[in-house]
Amino acid sequence: MVPPLYFMVLGAIVFLIGMLGFLTRRSLIQALMCLELMTSAVTLTLLAIGRTMPDGGLEGMVLATFLIVIGAAEVGMGLAIVILYFRRHGDATTDDIDLLRG
Amino acid sequence: MTGLVLFFGISGVIVASSIAMLFSRDFVRSVLFLLLALCSFAGLYALLDATFLALLQLFLYAGAVTVVLVFVVMLTRPKVADFSHLLQRQTIYAGVAVVALFAPIADALVRLAGTLPAAGTTAASTRVLARALMGEYAAPFEIASLVLLAALVGAIYLAREAE
């Protein structure tokens, strides 16, 4: 059995890669893809730390299930917003979206 | 032993493909690298004895989400990724933020390294997980389905053709 800590280290690394991409990419679609990566990394961390619990990882699995559901809802909404924005403005980059800027 | 080899192989694939995803100029190629990374994550879930989660990851993320992503890429035909801004102030701030977040995570992991108990020998089976989801966690399970329904309706409402 691989030590769960290894999985958590990998989860942290992939989360940070995703975060770097999310903060630097201009395209909304790529930002969403980075969010997917980060969600998967967090799921991995949950499963790994759940595996160290006496219940054989049950609670980690339950939390991970809910996280996957939330991730699916999030990507559906996000892509709908991308399509809507594209239809109105002809492009979907984070630089153009500044309607709420003070 | 085989577990370790598998773990390092799969994690190498994940790290490489997520970095490749960030830096590929073509959007479809970027989505394909994401697909590779998400499939590899399913392998890691299976290594952690979470078979159901591994399948869920394959069906939902690698299957559904990637297909929808490809659809959106095709529909919006984004320009090729442009990296001319990579040394702008925003990127430097992003790097600082990542390093600032990395420090506490690394600290927590180092402190955890000594105290984290080893994984138990028996993992919770899918049967146990199903019983927990339908029993103890039935209320959040139902709320999650409501969230999904709301997201579905919201996505249709947002993306529908304007009259």
Polypeptide structure, described:
The complex is a heterodimer of chains A (102) and B (163). Chain A is mainly alpha-helical and 102 residues long. Chain A has a single domain (4-89), classed as Helix Hairpins (Orthogonal Bundle). Chain A is built from 3 helices and no strands. Chain A has helices at 4-24, 28-51, 58-89. In chain A, α1 (4-24) packs antiparallel against α2 (28-51) and α2 runs antiparallel to α3. Chain B is mainly alpha-helical and 163 residues long. Chain B has helices at residues 2-23, 27-47, 51-76, 89-115, 126-134, 138-159. The model of chain B has no long low-confidence stretch (mean pLDDT 87).
Helix count, DSSP H or I runs of 4 or more residues of chain A? 3
- The CATH topology of chain B corresponds to Four Helix Bundle (Hemerythrin (Met), subunit A)
User: In terms of structural class, how would the helical and strand content of chain B be classed?
Assistant: mainly alpha
Text of the CATH class of chain B: Mainly Alpha
Overview features:
A: 102 residues; mainly alpha; Helix Hairpins; B: 163 residues; Four Helix Bundle (Hemerythrin (Met), subunit A); 6 helices
Short structural summary:
Chain A has 102 residues and is mainly α. Chain A has helices at 4-24, 28-51, 58-89.
